[in-house]
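Researcher: Here's a chain I'd like modeled. Treat it as a single chain, no partners, no ligands.
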Amino acid sequence: MNSLNQRRGTCQVVVGAQWGDEGKGKIVDVLAEEADVVARYQGGANAGHTVVVEGEEFVLHQVPSGILHPGKECLLGNGVVLDAAEFFAEIDLLEARGIDAETRVWVSNRAHLLLPYHKVLDSAKEGSRGARAIGTTGRGIGPAYEDKVGRVGIRVADLCDEELLAELVQTNVTAKSEQLARLRSDGASRKEAGPGADAQLDADDILEEVRAYRDRLLARAIDVSQKIARDLAAGRRILLEGAQGSQLDIDHGTYPYVTSSSTTAGGAVIGIGLGPKFLDDIIGVVKAYTTRVGNGPLPTEAGSPLQERLREAGDEYGATTGRPRRCGWFDAVVVRYAARVNSLTELAVTKLDVLDGFETVSLCTGYRAASGEVGEELAGGGALAEFPASLALLERCEPVYEEHQGWEAPTSEARKWEDLPAAARGYLERIEELVGVPITRVSVGQGREQTLER
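Model: Modeled as a single isolated chain. Structure tokens:
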């Protein structure tokens, strides 16, 4: 019997259960203390994970959050699209700040490379969408995944063959230049050409950039799937770290206002090369309220001044783009949906302290028709308890809220469940009831020590 199919170790997955920016980086940082290996399984430089260690802030875009724990091994799986130039810039920055990073990070040789033409296309295509813009970060993520699915992408393993690499880059530059020309032509007729549409791509320039980091990247390239299997067989503890959130999943999110990868727990096994039977705990991370960056539905989005109060109290600005996040009350419909599509075993709630001082706090328990015009799911004026696939239906809905007593006492000094104000505990317990998943961790501040376990 193949020994790699035998498992003595454990594997936890951390996923976002809202629209990203839930605080996964902090939760991963806390859990990494007990892990041996921390691995990213999807996304790219569009994710920004903020971790505060002893008052010092680190914003990680591609390097797994476990890097801030000495001795932990960090992996980037085949599901990642790697911007290698920015990846090594991030590594160098960590090294300059005293973190031993490069010798502890490995990259899957099956991971796809994100190259300069992907960023140019991302900007040009987003601009050409006009009023239907998705709200991308402009980091080239979508076009890189398009190349992967279209079977024209360039993988880390392809760097070993100079002739093949040159051929692939030239083929892609030719194809992308044609795409940009079409965007320029279409944009001129609509007066909506994206800002990247005028860029001129040069295959030699791109090859020169790739060659600059090729040897350094190949030195860190391994079969991540095989390493994970061997680690589990050896009894090691694995922690898989997701980027974005379940509502940004390409299949299960608010399509088309989504990212281009699988952000759910199902994406973890695909993006790391691991069989589903090896997953033990699936931890969903949520804020105590709701936020979203970019365009697309946000059913509980608040008006002024509530939105401004949440944004300023929670410092709700994107770690990658700096864009202000849209804010609103906690949406149990969204998180209940995430619990189902991820098979969540537990919840970690972050930023509870942002709600300190509110006289009352609200929870969305369902949706109802905003007018007499209803879809089939809302016929008879009934409440919609499950998140719909149709954005048209969602637009005709308004949230159903229940109001809870707020708490005046600050939560930031709490270090165990019993330290929380009774009203805060009641609020969290109601979230558990509505979602059907136990809350095991609560964050009440940025510091590691401000995460209490239940």
